[in-house]
Structure formats: structure tokens, C-alpha cells
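ERR on first pass: missing label on line 2. Operator R.T. fixed the label and resubmitted. Corrected input:
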Amino acid sequence: MKNRSLLMIPGPIEFDPAVLAALGAPTTGHLAPTFMEAFGQALERTRTLFQCAKGQPFVLAGTGTLGMDTVCANLVAPGDNALVINTGYFGDRMGTILERYGAKATHIRSAPGAHPTLADVEAALKTAAFKVMTITHVDTSTGVLTDVKGLADLGRRYGALVIVDGVCSVAGEDLNMDAWGVDAAFTASQKAVGVPPGLALLVVSSRGMEAFKTRKTPVLSYYSDWSNWLPVMEAYEARKPVYFGTPAVNLIFALNVSLGQILQEGLDARFARHIRMSRAVKAGITALGLGQVPQNEEIAAHTMTAPRYPSGVSGSDLIPAIGKAGVTLAGGLHAEIRNEYFRIGHMGAVTQGDVLATLGAIETGLAVCGYKFESGVGTAAAVKFLAAG
Ligand SMILES: *Cc1c(COP(=O)(O)O)cnc(C)c1O
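pass 2 clean. output:
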């Protein structure tokens, strides 16, 4: 930790030393018994993490965007209607990918910091027969948390396959595929799953796999086609090797270590810890007099916070000043409000110490930028919240 900045962006995050050690171990062959065991176990644990008892897990070399790509490529065919519940940057990307595979994407949008209401979504669902409906669980460009349970229930009632982009949520926010009726969900290793960038993780429900198996036209991507990957995932789960493309051996060893830690902590305890860290950060931000992008606390994510710059302070001054104080934060991402806010990631192995260091660095940066506030008031609010239990 000496001589380097604390990385508090919405991915990649700070990683646990045991995970990094697995990454640095000598690489085994992809047919080695120890690797078969690690990959098989990682697939089982992925299924548990997504809370989808009969789901089909896939772990692929690539980023979260590969998760988006592979789900769209396999679940839509040219001419299908897709409803995109669009809360920002990654909803736009989802629409682009759906259209690349020939679907007609209908976006239902809201102002940055809000999300479409259930009534808006139901009205949209009535306008056509939608093959799929996509939801961004935590919109990383606004910090908005959507009501996946309510939305998935609606989507299912209207016969759509429900796809969830959980890249900024899985392993930090509760996402219960079985209980909520989600058909496909994905994430990336570098966010709350806590492994350096390079893996896409996804789980597909029985209904989703049925839709894939009964599709009438070929999947329009070679690398993303589940016909290639399903035999590989099934084989490794049976602790037998099958080759299609060389697995990312070290990343998968590291993933298995991280998933072991996640399940050891327990999903409920982990989600509660994320809520607690999030409330501490948000208490500090509010005490400093900064607003946030999400319109209210009920729709604010627990894996990240999106504070607005106070008047008179610009991001091009503040973010580097916070960096000089030892913490790396991210600027805005949503095109409409890019220069109005910044982003703090607090997911995965995040600790109280990280939260306090981050607020301290933000206060230092604000002071350097000439913002007037009572020194220490942000960290004090977080300390008070944390001390209260
Ligand atoms: C980060 C992110 C992605 C994209 O993941 P990459 O690994 O950068 O490709 C997609 N959706 C959401 C919600 C994200 O936060």
C-alpha cells in the first residue's frame, strides 16, 4: 500500500492479497487436475453467487461488455423486439449491442438520477411482444439502483426474457435470480467480485437456456456462441477438461479464491456490509454539503456513490487534488451531466479504513480547491454513523 494511491473507483477496485497471490502463482496447464477442480468449483460458486440453483454458469475471458455481448448474441435473433430499461450509459450500450444482433431496441429512459417507473415500463410492455427486457441493476454512470424484483416480475408477466446487467451490483447488492425470475445476469471480475479485470461471469436460467436451445437461427458471433462454451462449462463442472479456447487459468484460480471468500463471508452479511459502507460514505458527503446524482436515497446504489461538485469547484481541479491526497476517484460518465459529478466505488473488500481515508482525501481536495466547510465534518459524520453500530 505504500507509495500508491487507494483505488476507490467503480472498478477495478482494491483486491485482496490472497486473490492477487493466486494470480501470481505459476500457471498450470488448462488440463491440470488442480485447475479442473478450481474451475469446477468456481462455476458452482458462481451459480450460488447469482442465487440461481438450476442456472447455467459461464465464466469467459473478457470484460463485462463480453457479458452483455454474449447474452444478446444468444438470446435474440434478427427481428426480435427488445425493451431496454435505460438508466444511463450502459443502457445505451445494451441497445447498441442488441441492434448489432438484429433486434429492434425500444429504450425507455428517464432523467439522469431517476429510473423509469413500473407504470412507464408496463405501458411500454403493452406496445409490442418483447422477446427480451434488459435492466441495469446499478447504473454506474449515475449511481442509480433499479428495482430488479418489481421490473422482472412485470417483464415476465408480459412474456419477456429478463436480462440483468449486474456488472456494478453482483456480489455487492442482492440479486436473487430464482426469487425474482431473472433469466440471464452477468458481471465482470473487476467490480464487486474482487478479481483483476479479464473475466465475464454470467448465469442463465433454465428458461433462458431453453430459449437459446430452441432458437431457429445461428448465433451471429462465433466467440460468444454458447454452443461452443456450454460443453466446456459442463465438462469443467464434472471435473473433466474439454478444449474450446484456452481458459484464463490464473484469473480463474484467483476467481475461485475470491468466490470462496465471498461465500465464507455469506451473501447476506456481505450485502449488509455494503449497505453500511455506503451509508457511511453518503453521510460524509451529505455533511460536506454535496448533493448526489440519484434523486433520493431509496434509489441510490450501495456499491458506489455519485456526489455532485459543490458550486465553484470543478472536477478538473478536484479529482487530481483528491489524488494528491492519496485516493483515486472517477469523474462523471453520463454524457448529459459529465462535468457535474464524480464517482466513488466502495465495493468488494472495502473496509471502514478505506471509507475514512476516502472522505479525508475528499475533504483535503475540497479545501485545496477553496471550498468553504468546517474541516473534518465529513469524516466526523461517517465516524458517528460507524460508531453507532
Ligand atoms: C463496468 C460496467 C460494464 C462494462 O464492463 P467492462 O468490464 O468495462 O466491459 C457494464 N455495465 C455496467 C453496469 C458496468 O458497471
